[in-house]
Specification:
By secondary structure, the protein is mostly helical. The chain is 64% helix and 3% strand. It has a domain at 52-121. A hairpin with a 2-residue loop joins strand 1 (116-117) and strand 2 (120-121). Helix 4 runs antiparallel to helix 5, helix 4 packs across helix 6 and helix 5 packs across helix 6. The radius of gyration is 16 Å and the shape is flat. It holds the Pfam family RedAm-like_C.
Length: 124
């Protein structure tokens, strides 16, 4: 619900009503049961093939959400937490699979400290 409320705040700040945004949010939410089933199978198997997405893709999207939140004057705390988690799991130049890095950082609590590289924090 927090993600929906943040997204609704972003859309309403740009003149789009939450009611108009709702069908898009519902479409995304309809994907969750299948997504959760796949993630559960990966966690249980300890296998993260990365066939669905890459962590670099997740990080890029979260960077955009954090920046847009700031531009709109919204509290970006929630997307910043997720962005930081993705950045800690990211290995610059590899685009490591998202599910493997998210699992490593969130479920097992073995996420490395954020790296600083010549390109900036987290290799961005």
């Amino acid at each position: 619900m927090a993600s929906f409320l943040h997204a609704a705040a972003m859309t309403t700040a740009q003149g789009v009503s939450a009611r108009r945004f709702l069908p898009y949010a519902e479409q995304i939410a309809s994907l969750l049961p299948q997504t959760f089933a796949g993630l559960a199978a990966e966690v249980d198997a300890g296998s993260y093939p990365g066939t669905e997405d890459r962590l670099a893709m997740e990080l890029a999207a979260l960077e955009h959400i954090v920046a847009t939140s700031a531009e709109l004057g919204l509290d970006g705390g929630l997307p910043q937490v997720l962005r930081d988690l993705a950045a800690r799991g990211s290995v610059p130049g590899t685009g490591r699979t998202a599910s493997r890095a998210w699992r490593r950082c969130s479920v097992s609590r073995r996420c490395p400290a954020r790296r600083t590289t010549p390109e900036g924090e987290g290799g961005r």
